[in-house]
Write a structure and sequence with these properties.
- The complex is a heterodimer of chains A (109) and B (114).
- By secondary structure, chain A is an all-beta fold.
- Chain A contains no helices and eleven strands.
- In chain A, strands 2, 5, 6, 9, 10 and 11 form a six-stranded mixed sheet that branches.
- Chain B is mainly β.
- In chain B, β4 and β5 form a beta hairpin.
- The chains are: A mainly beta (109), B mainly beta (114).
- Chains A and B meet through β5, β6 and β10 of A and β4, β5, β9 and β10 of B.
Chain lengths: 109, 114
């Protein structure tokens, strides 16, 4: 069975501080991992996917298969980064996403 | 291009009733999935349809069902509603199923069961 764990429900940092949102997964096959973000009163939207290895809004995430992790990082947090962040794993069969419990990021001025 | 559209956005039902929620995927998308979001259980996968066929199913009771039409629009139905069915129901659509495929979400339908 596949599982995604986000150990922190809430992460509070000051503006300009580094941010790391943790995500660990368990999956027997070759996973495809994503970070989705949900800003207040907005729909879930894709932030990053591991195969793209890109930086979006200053965020990066690296898949570490040895540690089965896909942590989200940003060197300098901004107030507009305050949102709910979900790590998700897509199985190889279809478009079924397994989500972690989510981490609420609060960036204080 | 219009995004994933869900109707109705808000609804209130009574225990024991049934409800049907509708989803229009992004034009050209053939895969539609449904999720339930609650404060306690988070985001949970309900089912996925591709070209009118159910391809994946989550761990929900048989009261939860869905279907997809030839134009890729999808509906989900919950029968014999229980208080615990109160949730945000999200629909997602995608153009394919391979790696690199993006899954887009709608704004959801807020269901309250009283």
């Amino acid at each position: 069975a596949q599982r995604v764990t986000q150990p922190e429900k809430l992460l509070s940092v000051f503006k300009g501080a580094p941010v790391e949102l943790k995500c660990n997964y368990s999956y027997s096959g070759s996973p495809e991992l994503f970070w989705y973000v949900q800003y207040s009163r907005q729909r879930l939207q894709l932030l990053l996917r591991h195969i793209s290895r890109e930086s979006i809004k200053g965020f990066t995430a690296d898949l570490n298969k040895g540690e089965t992790s896909f942590h989200l990082k940003k060197p300098f947090a901004q107030e507009e980064d305050s949102a709910m962040y979900y790590c998700a794993l897509k199985s190889s069969a279809g478009n079924m996403l397994t989500f972690g419990g989510g981490t609420r990021l609060m960036v204080k001025p | 291009k219009a995004g994933v559209t869900q109707t109705p956005r808000y609804l209130i039902k009574t225990r024991g009733q049934q409800v049907t929620l509708s989803c229009s995927p992004i034009s050209g998308h053939r895969s539609v999935s449904w999720y339930q979001q609650t404060p306690g259980q988070g985001l949970q996968f309900l089912f996925e349809y591709f070209s009118e066929t159910q391809r994946n199913k989550g761990n929900f009771p048989g009261r939860f069902s869905g279907r997809q039409f030839s134009n890729s629009r999808s509906e989900m139905n919950v029968s014999t509603l229980e208080l615990g069915d109160s949730a945000l129901y999200l629909c997602a659509s995608s153009g394919g199923t391979g790696q690199g495929n993006t899954i887009y979400f709608g704004e959801g339908s807020w269901l309250t069961v009283v």
